[in-house]
Amino acid sequence: MADPEKISAIRQKAGARRLPPEIAPVTAAGALGTALARAGEATAGLVITASDVAEDRTVLSALEGQISDHDLLALVEGPDSRFGMLVADPNLIAALIEMQTVGRVLPAPAQPRPATRTDATMCADFFDRVLEVLEAELTAAHPPVAPLISGYCFAVRLEDYRAASMVLPDIPYRRFQTTLDLGEGGKQGALSLLLPFAATGRNGQTTATPATAGGSDTPGIVLGARAELHAVLHRVSMSLDEVTALAPGMTVIVPREALSTVALEDMKGQVLSTCRLGQAKGQRALRIGTELPDDSMSSQAQGLSHSADPAPALSKANGPTPADNAQHVTATQEPV
């Protein structure tokens, strides 16, 4: 019969008493790498391998000069009116579009060009999927940072860094930066994700939730938020031939009634109000609302709308007419 002490010694040498290896805890950086891989496969059949996922704390002013004019900037919206930003470089954009159009990643760097609305549309599902999987990974692992990173989704494309600095609050942000292998070596891309570092308001104060404060801070938060609006005087439909034929000196006709039906739109193009064009202290101005009092500005707008010729009317309100100052009449065509 075997000696029990010898058996015990053999088991020790074989590692019978050794503790099982510990599983590394899930981190936000690691979860982002997983989210990128799953989102690429699910939305475009794109193989994405994330490496060197770094996490740090930053502010918007520190990003000036770090964001390229060719990067795609996407505003992301989270719970409690928190906002962040995704920044995708041209190679990531190109790889996603190539997989959706030609079915493979072309083995060449992306041609440098400004990102367009079409790019944002074709990448929107990928962005949403990244944020969705990131939330699922962190919810399952329960790290302390999970509530601050969960609940975000793609909102709208931002034109550039200047637009981002106007829309996003001036607070500390948690930034994730990662290098991406796209299509098994086809391209090398990069993606950055910025989310509020803490549940703070615009002035850096911790915001109270409705459960703890009954929503008493809501008016201050709303009044302190930034809003970007666009005044649209008139829209003209043209064929592509007509657009490409535009040149300095040509005049675009604006109907008289457009002066009293200026559309005030939000960033998504939704009409919020109808306005009337006029003057206030020598500057272009809009009277918001449909019921307008007979004051100086409304009288000016009424005088403009009843003029015999729209071009002289614009001259009175806004200076030289397009015909007199033709370089102000331009047409832009955004690349797709």
Radius of gyration: 28 Å
Low-confidence stretches: 201-216, 291-336
Give the spatial strand order of the biggest sheet: 1-5-6-3-2-4
Approximate shape: elongated
Largest sheet, in brief, is: 6 strands, antiparallel
Residues in helices, as a percent range: 25-40%
- The computed structural class is alpha+beta
Order of helices and strands: HHEEEHHHEHEEHHEHEEEHH
Number of helical segments with 4 or more residues? 11
Total DSSP E strands: 10
Taking all residues together, what is the mean pLDDT? 78
Strand content: 15-25%
Distance from N terminus to C terminus (CA atoms, Å) equals 82 Å
Structural description of this entry:
The structure is a single chain. With 336 residues, the chain is of the alpha+beta class. Helix content is 33%, strand content 21%. α3 (90-101) packs across α4 and α10 runs antiparallel to α11. The termini are far apart.
Topology (SSEs and partners):
Layout lengths: L3 H11 L13 H17 L3 E11 L13 E6 L5 E6 L1 H12 L15 H25 L4 H4 L3 E6 L2 H7 L5 E10 L4 E10 L13 H4 L4 H6 L6 E3 L7 H5 L17 E4 L5 E10 L2 E6 L7 H10 L4 H9 L18
Antiparallel strand pairs: 1-5, 2-3, 2-4, 3-6, 5-6, 7-8, 8-9, 9-10
